[in-house]
Specification:
alpha/beta, disordered C terminus, 3 helices, 7-stranded mixed beta sheet, 21% helix
Length: 197
């Protein structure tokens, strides 16, 4: 039972439909960029980089709609430690793959908030001279943007509310809630309630 949920912002049916449509758009663009198939009958190499831990549910659903082989290279970033609801800046917690040159890279994140995480990863990926770089986020919270970054694919634009579910957490919990939801105010620690990022 999820007794701390105040209300559902985006239900699971809308999420599933939107993820399907995003995957179709992404597949069309990648196939166009990759051009003719290579010697092994497959187009150029595609690498998805989901940002842990929030993007795991989203990327799992997204890639199951894609009709070509791809690789997953996970990267961990810290942005909202513990019960914090305010981004304290993006910091790498794991090494970025070092073999992205000439490949088609898709960076996947759960939510674009301040933009610091996506800006950091995109910059580091571009240093390796990939064939293409795309960014794909499930949620876009534009009012909190601190970096001038716009995702190539965004599922839903949401208001300035702290959300959980479908991979997003508060203090490590609620990632398994199937909808995007807002917590009850009394479920949030006063120490965690913060301002803008």
């Amino acid at each position: 039972m999820f007794r701390d949920i105040d209300r559902v912002l985006i239900d699971r049916e809308r999420i599933a439909s939107r993820v399907h449509d995003m995957a179709a758009d992404l597949a069309d663009d990648l196939v166009r960029d990759m051009g003719p198939a290579g010697p092994d009958g497959e187009p150029g190499q595609v690498v998805f980089i989901p940002i842990l831990t929030g993007a795991i549910v989203f990327v799992a659903d997204l890639i199951r709609h894609l009709p070509f082989k791809l690789r997953l290279e996970l990267v961990a970033i810290s942005s909202y430690p513990g019960r914090s609801m305010t981004s304290r800046g993006a910091a790498m917690r794991s090494a970025l793959p070092d073999n992205l040159g000439g490949r088609h890279v898709v960076i996947v994140d759960d939510i674009l908030d301040s933009g610091r995480t996506l800006a950091l990863i995109t910059s580091l990926v571009r240093e390796q001279s990939p064939a293409s770089v795309r960014t794909c986020v499930l949620l876009d919270k534009k009012v909190r943007r601190a970096e001038a970054i716009t995702p190539d694919y965004a599922g839903f634009e949401i208001p300035d509310e702290f959300v959980v579910g479908y991979g997003l957490d508060y203090d490590g919990y609620y990632r398994n809630h199937p909808d995007i939801a807002v917590l009850r105010p009394d479920a949030i620690s006063p120490k965690g309630a913060g301002g803008g990022a």
